[in-house]
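Hi Q.,

Before the meeting this afternoon, I wanted you to have the coenzyme A prediction in hand. No need to reply - just skim if you have a minute. The sequence and ligand are here:
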Amino acid sequence: MDTIEQIRIIPMERRHVPHLARLEKLCFAEPWSEKALEEELDNPQAVFLAAESLHGEVLGYAGMHDILGEGYIDNIAVFPQARGSGIGSALVKALCSYGADKGLAFITLEVRPSNVPALALYQKFGFQEKGRRRNFYRRPAEDALILTKHFPGNNRPAGEERKRDG
Ligand SMILES: CC(C)(COP(=O)(O)OP(=O)(O)OC[C@H]1O[C@@H](n2cnc3c(N)ncnc32)[C@H](O)[C@@H]1OP(=O)(O)O)[C@@H](O)C(=O)NCCC(=O)NCCS
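Predicted structure with the ligand bound:
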């Protein structure tokens, strides 16, 4: 495995898509398909990033939508053999840098309360628990915690997250 110094975070490209669809299947009960990922390549609201080694090996990815100055993270995933070496952190850091640079009011996401590594990752970057969606997940059924990171300097009042129906 390459070390964290030897990876780069770049915008998702078409060549990443089959690898990321495989990663989705590895990680999630309801994985995004190749088609769904590919559609994000042409979506101006999509901020989808890939982590790859300097040799071009795809190691992970993060997907967010920038909707009217609010960031909604869809997914973050790292291939199992590459976990624990800072790639997830590099991806979240890149999304937070995007949020700071673009003046997002906040970035928010849902996460399973049982997902200890993901919770630790988000908390490390200042995401805070703001609520819970009952029975949000299936296979297995579980609530979702809503975690949000606000960006100081933006004058939008806290707690104005767009209501989602997901
Ligand atoms: C969550 C995930 C993306 C983390 O990626 P990663 O590359 O392993 O993350 P990092 O190596 O940058 O670790 C980030 C922090 O997470 C925490 N962490 C990582 N692995 C952990 C583990 N097994 N147990 C507890 N905490 C862990 C640590 O706090 C770590 O920070 P530190 O090393 O500075 O202490 C990865 O575990 C993953 O792909 N999981 C499956 C998909 C998923 O659940 N995605 C989240 C959906 S909301």
